Amino acid sequence: MAPPKKHRARTVLIAVASVVVIAVMVAGGYVLTLANTFDGQTETLASAFPDEEGRPVKDPGDSSMNILLMGADFGGANQVTGNVLEHGGTGQRSDTMMLVHVPADRKGVYVMSVMRDTWLEIPGHGQNKINSAMAFGGVPLVVQTFEGLFDTKIDHVAVVDFQGFRDLTTALGGVKVKNDIAFTANDTDYFYPVGELNLEGDRALRFVRERKSFIDGDYQRVKNQQKFLNAVIDKMLAAKTLTNPATLYQVIDKVSPYLTLDQSFDAQTIAGLGLQLKDLRSDDVHSFTLPTAGTSRSADGQSIVLEDKQAVESVGKALRSDTMDSYFGKLDTPTK
């Protein structure tokens, strides 16, 4: 069994990193330009949520926010298919899934990665890997699966094309990551030695996607994604980035074409959240992986990750009661 990890100073994929930038730009008076750029270049999901009937009911007084983030590979900027936009992406697979919880007091952000091979109940499709939910029923079924798993309502959805990682690092001039395991990315000559690396472009993309080079496969890939995103948030929150409007605009301009969002998750909504999070610092962004019960094989021979039902119950309770800070504080000693 891989023990649950507690990671401080992490980020929340490109979408929430963008929130930080938006907050700064709003404060600097760039909101109109940013809004036009963001809304004009992002794609919108016509169908992101399941039928309202049967979804968890959220207390009207609960101002916390849950954002489901998914990584996909559509082939580049604004290359998302009509199937995804109109029908939520049935037939696609999402290899990266994170649930972001923003508490009501807006004093932190909690990012939970979910292993893509987690074996659980997919509504209407029995026991399957969680990443198969998108193939069976698109984004709405992924949302339904997460809401059923944690008995918690999802407020917003963001799908990020992996190619966005490449352009984001280029816009930032590279990001520094401490690599713990030396490896060569599969089918490439990209070698990543142990130590501090400056990642940019295609090398950054392969770093966050690689899994075949590791004994524990997806577990290490998730760790590397968290390290990489930690490096992104640190770079974006650096003084020389925050005080450079040209760099900030370039980040949004480069990243937004790779984002596909639900209809209500527009620039105005994100800017409002950004203002509420304007005092956010890297130490206030916490990331961890949903604990599992180890690995096994399904009856048909698939390699799977076993669901830790107690962990799922605890996370669900923390989400519903907006006490994720307490849950996170009970996890293992943090690692950087």
Describe the structure.
The chain is α/β, with parallel strands linked by helices. Helix content is 39%, strand content 23%. It has helices spanning 13-27, 31-41, 82-87, 133-150, 163-172, 201-209, 218-236, 239-242, 245-255, 267-276, 309-321, 324-329; strands spanning 6-7, 43-45, 65-72, 96-102, 109-114, 118-122, 126-129, 156-161, 175-179, 183-184, 191-192, 195-199, 259-262, 285-289, 292-297, 303-307, 334-335. The strands form four sheets. A nine-stranded mixed β-sheet has the order 2-13-8-3-4-5-14-1-17. Strands 7-6-16-15 form a four-stranded mixed β-sheet. Helix 1 crosses helix 10. It is globular, with a radius of gyration of 19 Å. Residues 1-17, 23-28 and 75-79 have low confidence and may be disordered.
List strands and helices in order, with pairings:
Blueprint: E1 6-7, H1 13-27, H2 31-41, E2 43-45, E3 65-72, H3 82-87, E4 96-102, E5 109-114, E6 118-122, E7 126-129, H4 133-150, E8 156-161, H5 163-172, E9 175-179, E10 183-184, E11 191-192, E12 195-199, H6 201-209, H7 218-236, H8 239-242, H9 245-255, E13 259-262, H10 267-276, E14 285-289, E15 292-297, E16 303-307, H11 309-321, H12 324-329, E17 334-335
Parallel strand pairs: 1-17, 2-13, 3-8, 5-14, 6-16
Antiparallel strand pairs: 1-14, 3-4, 4-5, 6-7, 8-13, 9-12, 10-11, 15-16
